[in-house]
Write a structure and sequence with these properties.
Layout (H helix, E strand, L loop, with lengths): L2 H11 L2 E2 L2 E2 L25 E3 L6 E7 L4 H19 L4 E7 L5 H13 L5 H10 L1 H9 L3 H11 L4 H8 L2 H16 L7 E4 L2 E3 L3 H11 L12
Parallel strand pairs: 4-5
Antiparallel strand pairs: 1-2, 3-5, 4-6, 6-7
Helix pairs in contact: 1-3, 3-4
Length: 225
């Protein structure tokens, strides 16, 4: 086992509760990108995009090592962002939630938290797009090399990358956000909360929660005859 894998395993193993884990409450060392305004559902250390004065705040709890999260981000999120975030109807918050492979999750979260703040969402998006590649590198036992290359593409040197993933404050920051999800009953990823209420992860589930809050009708679902 490489020193990188040993380091990541040691940092994450104690936090795992079956597929997910808990953590301590702390303050993030990487201030979130924002205009200074926040929705009432937002933490001071949250990473958010969209109109802070939107009537709806959607919080996603997800892991970059979760296959279902990758599918959602690569197939559902683009339409969701276009319809609701880009139009100013929804404030969107991404909160890290440890699930699936702890080594990949910790490394991915740490990288996103170590790049310049305005690159956070771009970095998360790229990790989901490259998720299958990371899975393949893991199968080949080449995960260390893959992440170092990705870190360099993200603007971090190898030394900065190692410092990032071994920084306990980084882990404490995302585990604090994850703990809030555990406290409200998030048990799997991707998990969604709309204005404080848990909802399903499909676009239909999200729209069923969002549209009434926007004063819009929920489209009738077609039933088989």
């Amino acid at each position: 086992m490489s020193s990188l894998i040993r380091t990541l395993t040691a940092l994450t193993a104690a936090a795992m509760l079956t597929a997910c884990g808990g953590g301590e409450t702390t303050t993030s060392t990487n201030a979130p990108a924002a205009s200074g305004e926040r929705s009432e559902y937002e933490r001071p250390d949250d990473h958010a995009i969209g109109n802070p004065n939107a009537a709806v705040t959607v919080i996603e709890y997800a892991s970059v090592s979760c296959y279902a999260c990758g599918v959602w981000h690569n197939t559902v999120y683009p339409e969701f962002k276009k319809k609701y975030i880009d139009t100013g109807k929804v404030r969107f918050i991404f909160r890290e939630f440890m699930a699936s492979d702890p080594t990949m999750a910790h490394t991915g979260f740490s990288l996103a938290l170590c790049v310049p703040e305005d690159k956070y969402f771009q970095n998360i998006d790229q990790q989901f797009k490259k998720q299958e590649q990371f899975f393949e590198f893991a199968r080949r036992r080449q995960l260390r090399e893959a992440y170092i290359a990705f870190a360099k593409q993200s603007g971090l040197s190898e030394e900065e990358f190692i410092s990032c993933i071994t920084n306990p404050e980084i882990r404490e920051a995302y585990m604090s956000r994850m703990q809030e999800g555990l406290d409200i009953g998030i048990t799997g990823t991707p998990g969604f909360v709309v204005n404080g209420q848990k909802v399903g992860s499909s676009l239909e589930d999200l729209e069923a929660a969002i549209l009434p809050l926007l004063g819009e009708e929920v489209p009738a679902t077609e039933t088989a005859e």
